[in-house]
Amino acid sequence: MPEAASRVTSIRVARKGGTEEVLRAVPAEVPVALTHDGSSYAVMLASPVDLEDYGIGFSFTEGVVKSAADIRDLEIVEHDDGLEVRMWLTPDPSRQLVARRRRILGPTGCGLCGVESLEGAAPDLPVVGAGITVSPSEIHAALDALGPLQVIGRETRAVHAAAFWRRGEGLVAVREDVGRHNALDKVVGSILRSGGNGADGMVVLTSRVSVELVQKTARLGASILLAVSAPTSLALRTAEAAGITVVAVARDDAFEIFTHPHRIAVDGNEKNRSESFGHVA
């Protein structure tokens, strides 16, 4: 199995002049094929760690399975040109996947990650439940705890991290990957493998908030998505519709609430503010 990071030599050129040879850690990025019942579903570029979590989480957020129990067997297979997460499904999801493949045979794709139409890029999502309410101090505590747990990130400064936080337990799952979507899928897989769900906690990301990350959060059932970087407009419209509270641009000194602010207990806003700031342009 490839290592998560390797050492390479580079030449550092200073602005003021002068050069020096530097030994630097860089993250591994390998092709990972995700297969179900012997058929390839997708090939992704990912970090070669926590691939069991990745296979389960990706299958769940893609709608291939409804729970970890729908995957009856999983193995990681090494190939000369990459890795394979080989999964075998229980009968019901297996039949549904066959029917799904038959539906997408023939039409010309739009090129958006394998979906067969533009409508497929914005699938119907579940609306999350009431969820939890958190305080600013809990948000900052979750962010403070994440940094020291980013092992590959500290070494390379070149990967994303995703995590899941629960009150009284803190960060119960932290996963890293060269792809921000992959990192979240790994967290989803970890939560499912432990028998949990997203209703009792908060998703934490080091990346920007794109629409796919909101979609994955909605499928997990988490009501709060906390991120270090900014959201996109489509991500906010999707979060608004799914009932998700987006807290982003989160720094040591402040953070911004973009949707459904009633879950963040700032100056009693869970009682005094409306459930949304309104239309997201």
Computed structural class: alpha/beta
CATH class of the largest domain: Alpha Beta
Largest beta sheet: strand ordering: 8-7-9-10-11-12
Average pLDDT, to the nearest integer? 91
**N-to-C SSE string, H for helix and E for strand:** EEEEHEEHHHEEHEHEHEEH
* Annotation, overall tally of beta strands: 12
- What is the H level of CATH, i.e. the homologous superfamily of the largest domain? Cytidine Deaminase, domain 2
Distance between the termini: 46 Å
User: What is the CATH topology descriptor of the largest domain?
Assistant: Cytidine Deaminase, domain 2
Q: From the alpha carbons, calculate the radius of gyration and give it in angstroms.
A: 20 Å
What amount of the residues lies in strands?
A: 25-35%
Pfam families: FdhD-NarQ
Protein name: Sulfur carrier protein FdhD
Function: Required for formate dehydrogenase (FDH) activity. Acts as a sulfur carrier protein that transfers sulfur from IscS to the molybdenum cofactor prior to its insertion into FDH.
GO cellular component, one term: cytoplasm
Characterization of the model:
This protein is an alpha/beta fold. It folds into two domains: 30-121, Ubiquitin-like (UB roll) (Roll), CATH 3.10.20.10; 136-272, Cytidine Deaminase, domain 2 (3-Layer(aba) Sandwich), CATH 3.40.140.10. 28% of the residues lie in helices and 28% in strands. The chain is built from eight helices and twelve strands. The protein has a six-stranded mixed beta sheet with strand order 8-7-9-10-11-12, with helices on both faces. α1 (51-61) crosses α5 (180-193) and α5 packs parallel to α6 (211-220). The N and C termini lie far apart (46 Å). Mean pLDDT is 91; it is low at 104-112 and 270-281. It is found in: Cytoplasm. GO terms for molecular function: sulfur carrier activity; sulfurtransferase activity. It comes from Methylobrevis pamukkalensis. Keywords: Cytoplasm, Molybdenum cofactor biosynthesis. The active site is at 110 (cysteine persulfide intermediate).
